[in-house]
Design a protein that fits this description.
Blueprint (H helix, E strand, L loop, with lengths): L2 H15 L9 E3 L3 E3 L2 E5 L10 E5 L3 E8 L2 E7 L7 E9 L5 E12 L5 H28 L1
Parallel strand pairs: 2-8
Antiparallel strand pairs: 1-3, 3-6, 4-5, 4-7, 5-6, 7-8
Length: about 140
């Protein structure tokens, strides 16, 4: 049998036995995610490294994938205004090449952490507390 016939026979045999053929999907971690969170995206080594790939989604726009230990990969940030729900993430291998999609979930939550406003407010409180302690100590020292 020729190699093409062997491959076709294997696929037909697998379908007959109910065995699913491997399907390429975009790999997005973590999933689920929240608005404002940084996510890692990978092609799972399905695209040719030399040809490159691009990933696109309504939750973070379009990003070029670059060679990495996971194949072609990139990090992206989920838009702050992303609403909870299910979103498609599509990878296209080279312009006009193979495409594969994964559906991810955005949860109703926010990324935990400190933003710039919170950090500035904390710094102001720290300075005020230090100034108050200095003044109280100075007053107490003057009476002794």
């Amino acid at each position: 049998m020729k190699p093409a016939h062997v491959a076709a026979a294997a696929l037909i045999g697998a379908a007959t036995l109910g065995i699913a053929a491997p399907v390429a999907t975009a790999q997005v971690e973590p999933d689920p995610m929240v608005a404002g969170q940084r996510v890692s995206i990978s092609d799972g080594r399905h695209c040719a490294t030399a040809s490159g790939a691009r990933v696109a989604s309504a939750i973070f726009g379009s990003v070029l994938l670059r060679p990495d230990a996971r194949g072609l990969a990139a990090d992206a940030t989920v838009a702050e205004q992303a609403r909870p729900g299910r979103y498609q993430v599509t990878i296209e291998c080279a312009p006009g090449g193979a495409r594969f999609t994964e559906t991810v979930t955005v949860q109703d939550s926010r990324v935990e952490g400190v933003n710039v406003t919170q950090a500035a407010g904390g710094l102001v409180l720290f300075v005020l507390a230090g100034s108050a302690a200095y003044l109280l100590r100075r007053r107490a020292g003057g009476r002794a």
